[in-house]
Structure formats: C-alpha cells, structure tokens
Design goal:
- This protein is an all-alpha fold.
- It contains 22 helices and no strands.
- Helix 5 runs antiparallel to helix 21 and helix 9 packs antiparallel against helix 20.
- The longest helix is centred in the C-terminal third of the chain and has 33 residues.
- The radius of gyration is 23 Å and the shape is globular.
- The two termini are 33 Å apart.
- The N terminus is likely disordered.
Length: 454
C-alpha cells in the first residue's frame, strides 16, 4: 500500500513538471551548479525583500498592541478606567486565554483559505478591535475588547511561521525568523501560497522544484511535497503527541514568560528607578536595540551551523545571569539593574528564532507542521498568564518575586532544551541503525532519510 501511495506521489510530481514545462528547466544532475546557486540567490533576494517586510509590518503592529498596554499603565490607565491592580492583570490574562485558544484552529484553516486571504483578514480584524480600545470607558469594556483582540491576533504569528516554513528550506529559516522577529520587536502584497507572483516563470519553476518536487533533496531537508497533501486527523494527532514539540514548547514557555513580563513591565521598572514616564519609553528602547543586533547575528550562526537547540543553550545563559542579579541586588544599584536588562533582553530574544525554527524544521508533512507550530505557540503563550500576575504594584521597586519566578522558568527552559537536543540525537541514531526502516518512502519526519536538527 505504501509503495502504491509512493507511486501516486511520483506520478503527481511528474505531472507537476509537465504542467510547468514552459519554460523548461534542467533538473537534478543536469542543472549546472553555478546556475542553481545564482537562481537560488535571486529567488531568496526577492522573497526576502517582498515578503519579509510585509510580514514584519504585520507582526510589528501586533506586537505594539500587545506591549503598549504596559506603556499605557505608566500613563495612569488603571486610574482612567477605575481599575485596581488585580483587575488590570485579569484584563491581560483574558487576552492570552483567547489568543491561545485560536492558534491551532487558525493554522489548520490557513492552507484551505490561503495565507494571502487569511493573514490580511486577521490583520483587518485586529486593527478594528484595537481601534475600539480607544473608546473603552470602564474595566468591563477593557476586558471585553482585550478578549476579542486575543481571538483576532492569535493566528498571526503561528500562521507567519508556517507560511515561512513553506517558502524557505530548513537551513534558511532561522535567519529569516531572526530578521522578522527582531525588526518587528523593535516597535521598540501576499502572493499565491508557495508561488509568489513576483517571481519569473523560471524562478517559479525552480522554487517549486527546490521546495517541493526534488524529492531526494527534500527528504534530507524538509520532506515530500505537501502542496497536495490531504487533511488527516492522524497528522494532527502526530503533531499533538510529538515529544520534541512539547519539549521545545515548554522551553519556549519560560522564554515567553520572560519576554512578556519584560515588555509589559520594563517601563514601570525604569520609572521606579527614578525616570519620568516619557524617559522610561526612551530608555526602554536601548536594550531592545542591542538585543535585535545580537539576535540577527545568532540567527545567522544558527543557519550556518544548522543547529538550533545547541545554540539556545548558550543564548539562555545571559538571561539567566541577568535575572539572577536583578532579583537579588539592592534597589540602590540602579545602574547595575538597568545594565542587567541588556543581558535579559539579549538572552531572551536571541533564542526565539532558534526555538521557532527548530520545531518547524523537525516537523514534516504540512498538517503536522501546522499543528506543531500552533501547539508550540499555544503552550508557550501560557507564559503570558504567568507574566501578568508576578509583577504586582505592591512588589515595586524590587520585584523580587517576579524576577525569581522568571529565573526559575529560564533554568527549567535550559534543561528542556538540553533534553530535546538529546532526544533528537537519539532519534537520529535510531534512524541510522534501521529502527525507522518501516517508514522509508513516507517522506515525512519519520522517514529514515529525514534527520532531525539538533
């Protein structure tokens, strides 16, 4: 049965080539290496400059919506809406609840509706909802609008990651995620799915072959062609019960708990160090800027070495050190505390492209990848619940409890990353000795020729 399915896939691949014979392009060994390299660079240049800026702009707006509520707090948001500290935290938590609930359903319908429709539709929806926040008059309205905002924004990031994973090979993902994520985070047009209209006919064909048709190379890089893959609940189940996904998700949980608390409360922390609200906005930009530069460098190294978890083990150390110091040093040492925010921001942000790319890299089959991408973010975004309740106003200005909780989560994340690296290495060893031989020809991440990225 498996051989019959494999033959049908082969026939479909031949039909794809026949349907795109004008203009013809040499395939496999007949393609000159220099031609391949030049064409790949040309395609990547177009993808990078046509797609990434638009996606970055979308996520930038989303990120602004998510973090500006922390800035608004320094301008007496709670007083204006007659809320106490606990009600403000509840409003933040409601957002994360609906945000998390919408991620997997959104990714599963992404291919059906098409990213060129679904992602802009989400953007329009949360743009309207965000505008409604300007008309909120009380705490009930604040919580209601934040809940709807979570529904409309939840599908954006997992959808973007899934979309990029279908446009780039595994060795190209981390740098693009790094550029996209850091540019968007420095807040402080869509083509047809997988076949951008701005590519020439030759480039479209080569991109299709590069990502989907060249099965032997694709098995080593990303699995078989998923464009014609039919939805199966079994693929969703494979994604949900993936050990690697849960390990990466829990490691990302700790990172996001730190990121969300950092973004929501950094302006407040700086104000408590003696700066005005306006100065706090300016001083909070600098750690983000430094983190952005470091993140891009780390992403480049990650792609060059084709390593994800191993790189994260080094990235998390500065953040752990930063939180350990800032949680225990005296309030009098304001300059040291501010200096630690650079280590915290750098360590947290530089690991994000690696963990997002890692999970996507090790999931082959469109619907499994759609599930694991959304599931990872769904679990990780629960860190938002932690972030909203561990920095109460009564803990100002030391925030010892909040910093200590994040420190513990980051240490746990480090061990989760280590466990995932060891797990992926074991799977690769098992494939090498034939323990996955029954999956030969499947073309997904179970295939013996598909090696997991460490």
């Amino acid at each position: 049965m498996a051989s019959l399915d494999h033959k049908e896939d082969h026939d479909l691949d031949e039909k794809y080539i026949e349907d795109n014979e004008k203009p013809t392009l040499p395939v496999g060994d007949n393609v000159p290496t220099t031609h391949n390299t030049a064409l790949t660079r040309r395609i990547l240049f177009k993808l990078d400059f046509r797609i990434l800026p638009v996606l970055t702009l979308l996520f930038l707006c989303s990120f602004l919506d998510r973090t500006n509520v922390g800035n608004a707090k320094t301008y007496k948001l709670e007083t204006s809406l007659k809320m106490n500290d606990n009600q403000y935290d509840t409003g933040l938590a409601v957002y994360y609840a609906t945000y998390i609930a919408s991620e997997i359903p959104s990714n599963l319908v992404l291919k059906k509706i098409s990213p060129k429709i679904w992602l802009p539709l989400l953007t329009i929806a949360w743009g309207i909802v965000t505008m409604c926040l300007g008309f909120v008059q009380n705490k009930a309205g604040f919580m209601a609008v934040r809940a709807v905002l979570g529904i409309t924004e939840g599908g954006l990031l997992p959808g973007i990651v899934l979309y990029l994973s279908e446009m780039y090979t595994r060795g190209e993902m981390a740098l693009r995620l790094g550029l996209f994520y850091t540019a968007a985070s420095l807040s402080g047009a869509f083509g047809v799915f997988k076949r951008p209209i701005f590519l020439s006919e030759e480039e479209k064909i080569f991109q299709g072959m590069r990502i989907h048709v060249d099965v032997p190379a694709r098995l080593r890089e990303d699995g078989l062609d998923h464009q014609r893959e039919v939805f199966k609940w079994s693929e969703v189940g494979r994604g949900i019960f993936s050990i690697s996904t849960w390990l990466s998700a829990f490691s990302y949980f700790g990172i996001l708990a730190g990121l969300y608390s950092f973004g929501l409360f950094l302006p407040t922390i700086i104000v408590e160090l003696g700066y005005t609200a306006n100065q706090a906005q300016l001083w909070s930009v600098i750690p983000y800027a430094v983190a952005a530069v470091v993140t891009v460098i780390v992403s480049f190294i990650s792609d060059y070495l084709k390593l994800r978890g191993v790189i994260m083990l080094f990235c998390l150390i500065p953040a752990i050190v930063g939180y350990a110091v800032i949680a225990n040093i005296s309030v009098a040492h304001t300059k040291v505390k501010y200096g630690m925010t650079f280590l915290m921001a750098t360590g947290l942000y530089s690991g994000v492209p690696c963990v997002l790319g890692w999970n996507s890299n090790n999931s082959a089959g469109h619907y499994k990848r759609a599930t694991t991408t959304a599931l990872q973010l769904m679990i990780a975004n629960c860190g938002g619940f932690v972030a909203t309740f561990i920095y109460p106003n009564v803990d100002k200005p030391q925030f010892h409890l909040g910093h200590t909780v994040i420190l513990g989560l980051l240490v746990a994340s480090w061990f989760m990353v280590l466990a995932n690296v060891l797990y992926c290495a074991k799977v690769n060893r098992d494939k090498k000795v034939g323990k996955y031989a029954q999956y030969a020809g499947y073309g997904d991440d179970r295939d013996p020729e598909f090696r997991l990225v460490l």
